[in-house]
Amino acid sequence: FDKATCSSPVYPRKLNPITLVNGGGWLNPGNASTSNGSYATAELNQTNQTSTGFLSATNFGFNLPPSVIKGIKVEVAKVASFSLIGLIDKRVSLIKNGIVGPTNKAKVGPPLDFWGSFTPPPGTVIPYNASYGRRYDLWGEDFTYNDINSPNFGVALSVQLGIVGPGALPTDTATAYVDGIRITVYYELSENNGAA
After folding, report:
1. Cβ pair 65, 145 in contact under 8 A
2. What is the rounded distance in angstroms from the CA atom of residue 155 to the CA atom of residue 139?
3. Which string of DSSP letters, residue by residue, matches 115-143?
């Protein structure tokens, strides 16, 4: 039978923008620590900002017992402003030992999975509306419980232009809003911990 145990969703305690070549920065990255109506944001346009750099979330504070990691699920509360420019994921990858992993869970289609088209009024709480990974999905890597408990474990995401509607000007912008990021880890207790 299924022996995997699910951790409660855990929220990051440290969020930092990682600047990449030809990537853009995020404003107020710490606002994405939990879904509460304050946002990390990034503006994109056709002229000089077609994608962002990483918004990285680490230091989740996991405290798993000795166990075998079975799967990892990431959830993001996100939306894009109402605009003639549609935004989509560019990268969604786990961070292990402070390094962004090779597996990209970005929902780039087909069909394209847009971030939505809604400019949230200030203070609007965005629900966790995007999920990546699942119960038996290790994102192409092996993780130990120490890897998960490390402050250098987390997730990195970036966003890009997906479609430009008729009539959009090169200077028109679209804003990506991230209200929260959380991770759930599925694990099985090690034999020496008395797991059935």
Report:
1. yes
2. 11
3. -----PPTTPPPP--EEE--TT--TTS--
* pLDDT reported for residue 85: 83
> Which runs of E-coded beta strand occur in the chain?
5-6, 14-18, 40-45, 54-58, 67-80, 85-96, 99-100, 130-132, 154-164, 173-189
Contact 123, 37 (CB under 8 A): yes
Strand partners, 149: none
pTM reported for the whole predicted model: 0.87
CA distances from 88 to 4, 66, 96, 166, 169 (A): 32, 38, 24, 18, 19
What pLDDT band is residue 179 in, cutting at 50, 70 and 90? Answer: very high
Q: For residues 7 and 153, is the Cβ–Cβ distance under 8 A?
A: no
Query: How crowded is residue 123: how many other Cβ atoms within 10 Å of its Cβ?
Result: 8
Do the Cβ atoms of 163 and 45 come closer than 8 Å? Answer: no
Which pairing describes strands 14-18 and 54-58: parallel, antiparallel, or unpaired? antiparallel
Among 187, 184, 186, which Cα is nearest to 60's? 184
What lies within 8 Å, CB to CB, of 127 at 6+ separation is 35, 77
Number of Cα atoms under 13 Å in the Cβ half of residue 89: 21
* pLDDT at position 18: 45
pLDDT digits (tens, 9 = 90+) for 44-81: 988 888 899 999 999 988 999 999 999 999 999 999 99
